[in-house]
Amino acid sequence: MGLNILECLSNSFNKVGYPLETDGVELWFHPLNLKINGHLDLGEQVRDDMFHARLKIELFNEEKFEDGIFEFAYGWGESQKAAVENAADRWLSSDFPAIHDLLCTHHCDTEKEIMNLVSFSGELDEVLEWKLVKGPIEGMGKICEMVEAEGSHLLIRELFQAMTDELLGRPNLYAIKCFLSQNAEGEVDIDCRVNGEVWELGYRYLYAFAESWTPADHMQYIKQYLILCEEPIKDEERKRELYEELTQQIKQASPETIEQPETIEQPEQLSTSTIIPPPEKKWWQFWK
Fold it and tell me: Are 155 and 224 in contact (CB under 8 A)?
């Protein structure tokens, strides 16, 4: 009999106090109206005492992602089952917190790692309102000093121009996976995906960021899961401030200022990103 992936997923959820229901075909986490499917995408024995597993985890929610989103989770263990459960455990600790905060309605947004922003879509000729949910940012090695100093918006800062160029102009839900590593030889490895698919522009921005790290005599990495979702801003005061600032920036824009973006004051947390994209790009305003 083959390995029961749904049972492994259910065991991992149970360990953190989230009991799931199943009909043998799929799993349900009813508090979030979340349907969960899991498949072993890759399973291999890498040593006599070590197995590797790559899970493909699919999620469905009628309100936020009816057509589903998916992501890969990676794990290791002394058996194939242990490797699968390790992959599920790691996914629950890194990706699931953002999904939970997006879907949970029992806590207000101020109790979660959430930002609001607005963007102007030239394609649609309208202002879009967004919620950006931050999963926990994890790191290992010397780079953790930067993680501690910058906090959970570190990778958002590095990706914001890519988000401006390719995501913020089109209403949708974008689940963004970020993994950056550098080994002791200075070699960089990046995994950057949107809704499970490789995001090439985000990959290039993260690659450049990881290349800038000071090499260490050990492996170092950062990973985070982010969800960008078009959603009305409930805080009217915050919404008004965002709209006013966006309006002022658009009014100030001219061919001259577009050619010289440094003439527009930038928010401190986005100091590495230009806030004035070329005319065909999308305007945005950021709120921390």
Answer: yes
pTM of the model: 0.81
Stretch 251-278: mean pLDDT? 37
Tell me which amino acid residue 246 is: L
Would you kindly state where each structural domain of the chain is located, as residue ranges? 5-94, 109-235+268-287
148 touches 128 (CB < 8 A): no
Report yes or no: 56 and 41 within 8 Å, Cβ to Cβ: yes
Architecture per CATH, domain 5-94, reads as 2-Layer Sandwich (3.30)
pLDDT class for 65, splitting at 50, 70, 90? very high
Tokens describing residue 47: 């040593």
Quickly list DSSP for 211-263.
Answer: HTSPP-SS-EEEEEEEEEEE-----HHHHHHHHHHHHHHHHH--HHHHH-GGG
Angle made by CA atoms 85, 34, 100, in degrees to the nearest 5 = 75
Q: How many residues does the chain have?
A: 288
181-207: string of b/e by CB count within 10 Å (b at 16+)?
Answer: bbeeeeebebbbbbbbeebebbbebbe
User: CB-based contacts of 227: which residues, under 8 Å, 6+ apart?
Assistant: 98, 99, 102, 132, 133, 135, 173, 174, 175, 176
**Rounded-to-integer distance, Cα 235 and Cα 185, Å:** 48
